[in-house]
Amino acid sequence: MPDPVQVSLAISEAAKDASPLPVPTPTKAARKPRPAKAAVPSPAGPAQSEPAPTESAAPKAKPAPRKPKAPAAAPATPEVAQEEARPEPAAEPVPPEVPADAPTPPLSSEATLDPRDADTFAIRLERYRADLEGSLRSVYGAEQLVALWPRLEALLRRALAERPADLRRLDEARLLRPDWLQVPEMIGYVAYADRFAGTLEGVGEHLNYLEELGVKYLHLMPLLKPRVGENDGGYAVQDYRAVREDLGSMADLKALASRLRRRGISLELDLVMNHVAQEHGWAVRARAGEQKYRDYFLMFENRDLPDLYERTLPEIFPDFAPGNFTWNDEAQRWVWTTFNSYQWDLNWANPEVFLEFVDIILYLANQGVEIFRLDAIAFIWKRMWTDSQNQPEVHDLTRALRACARIVAPAVAFKAEAIVAPGDLIAYLGRRDHHGKVSDMAYHNSLMVQLWSSLASGNTRLFEQALSAFAPKPTNTTWGMYVRCHDDIGWAISDHDAGMAGTTGPGHRAFLSDFYSGEWPGSFARGQVFQANPRTGDRRISGTAASLAGLEAAQTEEDIDLALRRLRLLHAVTLGYGGVPLIYMGDELALLNDERYLDVPEHAQDNRWLHRPAMDWHKAEERFDVATSSGRMYAALQRLIRARRQLPHLHASIEAQIVPSPNEHTLLFRRDHPLGSMLAMYNFSPEFQPLPAPLLRAIVGDYPRDALSGHEWNLTNPEVALEPYGAYWLIEQTR
């Protein structure tokens, strides 16, 4: 059952109308005075027969006020706060009752399955029943599970009945090749559809380009219909069943997915799990006073509970959206808004929200979406006296959603967008009874951070320390490996790891922010600080990979050569670690920072748009000209991809193991495969670095082959030297 202090739907008589809350807006405004406490009726169990409103049917909402700050509280440790202000459990909202006779949602068509499909459904349901029932019972309790089950089963039957024939064939193929996401041939490409090609139809006109690069799955950044105006780069979704009008229609998305599938390219979309735009139909009806939809959110009549939560909640956007709660005049409630005031956090303690998302996932899967990036998944469950991230219910809910997807659309995979500490990350791929049953992929944020850390310091001791702390992942899962993405870089480096590597956490994080903003003497980087937090000292970094690696600052041919060597090194690590390399649009051409974002009012206050340039198709046309920086970068990346595709050692089921290096400037990984071992060697220094040959020989033998150059190495000599920013994949050869 949900935690007694869990912010949920309904409220007991003692804590009337403490419903779910929305996200803070990034606007600045004077704090709204606390409203006088008014009595509100305790919510009844939500009605089930009324379908959720679409945005087109929803009345126009008023503009959101800027997110007011929570009232200042006297500093207190959580322990002191618990002693002084912890409310009685009765003052916390509890999940609403679901009537046992609640009708199933209306079906868009008869969910009649032919005998063969009925058998398929029964077999899959039996296969995943334990995961589904166990997770839902853990989150919602046995009584609510009994009430929920008939409606859930009807929803799953309907979705299977509506699944197109070509996607059913894909389901069967994936069941025969369950490791499809783990193979070395899997290369991802990440792009904003509009910045890549203008529209979804335009994306379809550039599939030859993607295929030539070796792309096997395409992640199109948020393209579901967002709110008008500021929308957090598309992550404030107004309608999950519609596409941004300037990009096309849902029919266009379905057509693009089909074209991609014919070329063997899987389509990935973002599914924002934690929140919706305040203009979403659910939020519109919640503001209008409909209790069913108020129960979809976390809304509070006064500041009593929000102030208690704030004591342990971090701020995501302290510059333009401080605090985690926003006052809404129309609803006369404080709404939980973790990110921006126009993004209202959903109340996953309400099983109706779970059902809505099952329906959304299966609807999009039937349009041809094959991979769902579960955005902000770490935040979906709230608990008092915690940071309301990484709670156990998150993993139960993910396992239940995955089971539903496996029953209807086994071709579908989940990718967790969980930018969390290493100790919390493995849980998103599965621990204990969740092992391999939650997300199929998770971002390896720590490796990305350590890449940039070692590039700045020239030292790999912290890299070794941080990665050695990772527990093995489930063998049926994979990492999402990346050099850069659409977001800022946060220096997720623990004080413990920094101390073990001979430095301090605060000092090293400050150094990295100074270095990559170009403020450190001798820095080659040209990034910008994003969201400086004077209270915590946190300063994240924006900038493209090429600008951060020194190409923008390069003055001479030698500078250009060093910058391109750095970029090749970073990509070699991500392609040679195992997992799915995710190439961020334009990195294959070494695109630089784009200051033109300042001319766009919706973007000007968010310097992350610095590293979201429009695709430069003129440079793309020059990609085979190795006299240009873009041509050299493209050629280097293509060689890495070709080499990777030939190496079964890079199947994601095989763990990369740190080999402690005697040289603090170099990084060594080994991967042991039945065909022989692989040793990846990387030099993070601008100078030649020596390594003792006997150490290497013990792993890959006397005469390994370098898969990147094709050369055979002689390790019978006492020592070898790695070139400046050199990368090598040595493969054991059997003679």
Automatic annotation (TrEMBL):
Biased composition range(s): Pro residues: 90-106
InterPro entries found in the cross-reference section: Amylosucrase, Amylosucrase_C, GH, GH13_cat_dom, Glyco_hydro_b, O16G_dom_2
Biased composition annotated in UniProt, kind: Low complexity: 36-61, 70-80
Cleavable signal peptide: none
GO biological process, one term: carbohydrate metabolic process
UniProt-recorded Gene Ontology molecular function terms: amylosucrase activity
Positions of the UniProt region annotated as Disordered: 1-115
Glycosyl hydrolase family 13 catalytic domain ranges (all copies): 190-644
High-level lineage: Bacteria, Thermotogati, Deinococcota, Deinococci, Deinococcales
PANTHER family xref list: ALPHA AMYLASE CATALYTIC REGION, ALPHA-AMYLASE FAMILY MEMBER
Protein name per its UniProtKB record: Alpha-amylase
Species of the source: Deinococcus irradiatisoli
